[in-house]
Amino acid sequence: MPRTITYPALRRLLLATSIWVCFLLPGQSQTVLGRVVPAFEARDLLLDEALYLLMEEAHVSISFNNADIPAIRVNVRAQDATVGQILKELLAPTQLEVELLHDQIVLVPRRAPPPVRWYTISGYVVDARSGERLKDAYVYEPERQVSTETNEYGFFSLRLPEGAATLTVSYLGYRSERIPLTVDRNIRLDVQLEPSLTLRQIVVTARDSLPLRFRSPEQVLDARLLLTLPSMGGEPDVVRATHLLPGVQTGADGADGIHVRGGNYEQNLVLLDGVPIYNPFHAFGAFSIFNSHAIRQATFVKSG
Q: Fewer CB in 10 Å around end: N or C, the chain?
């Protein structure tokens, strides 16, 4: 007598079948790569030949574009290895990677990583109390080992890749600062450092008031005291005051510049605040071009 299946029993059967299929399909792709191959050996084969051999011995389907397969020879030997392990070893010298499309293994060119974005962190390092800008302060990012120093205006500029970073700012006599950052744009960053070493004020006072201090090779001339020296026409001249120093001579009749230790007047280097002055005399060398009232101090070096 034929067995009759009622509607509720049929619905339960279909539901159980659908649940079994749903559990089977997600794990099927993983089973393809996890399938164990008892023995595989590709000895001096072209890569595409080794892939065809793997498909034959593992009973799997591998799709690829022949134009993407480099013409290289491979030597792979595996025992009780999975398909995924064998593919990883075969594709190691290439730019190919494995993708799964349902139960199909697909070899595609490896995607290039996204380009790294770089941003600039810039600002000033200043004293937290006085606001004075600090020259040669050290700015360092330890994770990427990138560093820089502030310039004479206390300004720094540092390029960092996108991502998290920690800047360390330090300066002699100040407490170091560690600043965490999220580098996702150009950032203006002003850093204030607290002094960690404060000394009492020290006042240095001279014991004598000689207008000229003879120190070899440098001799410092205090312009305020040189104003009291005799001068031609009653107008003080810092350069003519050097005629009183040993080893310095004038030209004929007190003109023609100055001659140091027998040298020519053209062999002297004259600097005004570090800037060379190429013709410091006028009136045939009788006078210099410097206003002694505007000079705080002059340094004369005979053996530089």
A: N
